[in-house]
Amino acid sequence: MIEQAVKREKNAKGVTQVEWKDTRQFIDALARTGDLTVVEKEVHWDLEIGAIGRLACERQAPGLWFKRITDYPGCTVFMNPLATWRRVAIALGLAAESSVKKIYREYEEREGRLIPPVTVSDGPCKEIVKRADQVDLFDLPAPMLHEGDGGRYIGTWDLVVSRDPAAGWVNWGIYRFMVYGARRLTGFPRPTSHLGKVFLDHYVPAARPMPIAIVIGADPLCHLAASATYRLGGDEAMLAGGLRGSGVEVVRCETSDLMVPATAEIVIEAEVLPDAVGLEGPYGEYPGYRTGEMGNGILCRVKAVTHRRDPILTIDATGYMDDSATITSMSGALAIKRRLERHGVPVVDVYVPPEGAVHAAVVAVSRGGPEVTRQILEILTSRRALLSKIFVVDGDVDPFDLGRVLHAFATKCHPVTGVHVVQYTGRANTLTPCYSQEERKRQAGGTVAFDCTWPPGWSREWEVPVKATFDSIFPEILQRKVTASGGET
Ligand SMILES: Cc1cc2nc3c(=O)[nH]c(=O)nc-3n(C[C@H](O)[C@H](O)[C@H](O)COP(=O)(O)O)c2cc1C
Ligand SMILES: [Mn+2]
Questions:
Q1: Do 250 and 148 belong to one domain?
Q2: Could you tell me if 268 and 402 lie in one domain?
Q3: Is the CB of 190 within 6 Å of ligand 1?
Q4: Is 309 found in the same domain as 362?
């Protein structure tokens, strides 16, 4: 059924076009494949939605559409849009049961074909327009997601549009935002994020407020593009167009010249203040822990809110196996693969397993050993270092098969000479749970690479042990006979 929803006749450029152009059409698609649970009974925004959404992630259960929220008639909440591979496959217009490897290959192919956005003069996101003192963020059902969060989070499955005033390029990224008052938000773009860097490099020194648009509930592939590990200056709107197979329709903001996806559910137009901060966090974060304490976040003044009629607030139940486990890990893995290729590493494939919360990567290489492992470690930690564990495996190990990866790690990684470590300051991931508060302040940390490959100097004839697996330790003729009979003879 899903295959039918994708225009099979390819357009002039040979691009597959995905039909769903907004959150509502995507929700319908999920309902058709059994990947949506509609919750009709009333649920509370204070922890109840968060608890149900959290359990759904941990069970890899369908997405959730809450239709009745305490105190908020007229608003609904859609939770965990892309937190399973099935939902990522459906968003891309693939069969729901597509393998992870197939999803990776499809994403990799489409991200190479950028399609620019299309400007429109009006769109559903402008059905309701509230400016200045008409704005009250408490009109929207921002949930208290986890016990102990610093406040109610309205930006979890968002897409934040901003511009570099010097170079003129536009950035999209997903960053968390907390309600701080009726017209105030605080947020947590990491200092290493593109928004964080542009704000600190260009707006703070000039003492100018930075216009941003927090877009909530655009079509799922726009959010996938916004979460992607993407180059500085790269245009995520064009990436989203490439993933969809058609340009994203964008419309101008009311209070700035930023352009936002026209079919989004909610758009919060704001400016980040250059000379003030506001308390933000803690928050139950994607590594699967409540990390940090309440601290200073960026402080934003809201200038307008526009939304569709009966707006759907999209939310990520952040934590173990959430939306970033699937989408950020996939784009991260492919960015690692490209980077290693550029540096001449003989990389075959890279997998960042969702269970590792974007902290661990598996890199398969056609030629391994300590030098290649060291090279991989240095390349992957030379800039912002989000990963802290790397498993380097030989090319005959399928990196997507975690059982085989663990087998290679357990049997091939030398406990003394196979472990390579680097330490760094100023670029570590401050959300890595094993780092102390003191290390986080200095952005200090390290990365370990486990060399799970045979030393290149070992003779294939007599030093490398023969694998005692079906495909290695039996004559080919017997393998063919056994597989031909279905493995029963
Ligand atoms: C659901 C979700 C929430 C995220 N929240 C944050 C966040 O609060 N702060 C942050 O720096 N990155 C966050 N990220 C990761 C960024 O979106 C990701 O690193 C992206 O590449 C950032 O874009 P940038 O490179 O343009 O900064 C989140 C990702 C997802 C999928
Ligand atoms: Mn970006």
A1: yes
A2: no
A3: yes
A4: no
The answer, yes or no, to whether any atom of ligand 1 lies below 6 A from the CB of 175, is yes
Name the percent of the chain lying above pLDDT 90: 91
Weakest mean pLDDT among 79-88, 204-213, 316-325, 376-385? 376-385
Q: How many domains does the chain have?
A: 2
pLDDT for the residue numbered 8: 42
Q: Give the residue-averaged pLDDT of 133-137.
A: 98
> Is 225 a member of any domain?
yes
Question: Identity (one letter) of the amino acid at 263?
Answer: T
Residues 282 and 159 in one domain: yes
pLDDT band at 19 (very low <50, low <70, confident <90, very high): confident
The answer to whether residue 237 is domain-embedded is: yes
Residues 296 and 366 both lie in one domain: no
Residue 3 has pLDDT above 70, yes or no: no
pLDDT of res. 232: 81
Per-residue pLDDT, averaged over 167-171, amounts to 94
CB-ligand 1 contact for 164 (6 Å cutoff): no
Hey, which of 193, 235, 238, 443 would you mutate to test ligand 1's pocket, going by the most ligand atoms within 8 Å of its Cβ? 193
Decide whether any atom of ligand 1 lies within 6 Å of the 194 Cβ: yes
Is residue 179 in some structural domain? Answer: yes
Q: Are residues 136 and 25 in the same domain?
A: yes
**pTM, two decimal places:** 0.95
Is 40 part of any domain? yes
Range(s) of the domain holding residue 390 = 343-452
Neighbours of 290 (CB within 10 A): 18
* Ligand 1 pocket residue status of 291, Cβ below 6 Å: no
Residues 234 and 304 in one domain: yes
Whether residue 299 is found in the same domain as residue 431: no
Ligand 1: nearest atom to the Cα of 174:
17
Q: Does ligand 1 come within 6 angstroms of the Cβ of 174?
A: yes
CATH number assigned to the domain comprising residue 416: 3.40.1670.10
Q: What is the pLDDT of residues 433-458, one digit of tens each?
A: 999 999 999 999 999 999 999 999 99
Q: Tell me, what's the pLDDT at 14?
A: 62
Tokens coding 24: 């509502």
Tell me the CA–centroid distance for residue 82 and ligand 2, in Å: 19
Instruction: Please report which confidence band the pLDDT of residue 9 belongs to, taking 50, 70 and 90 as the band edges.
Output: very low
State the closest ligand 1 atom to the C-alpha of 190, by its place in the atom list counted from 1: 11
**Rounded alpha-carbon distances, angstroms, from residue 320 to 84, 123, 434:** 12, 35, 16
Domain boundary among the residues 277, 299, 315 is at 315
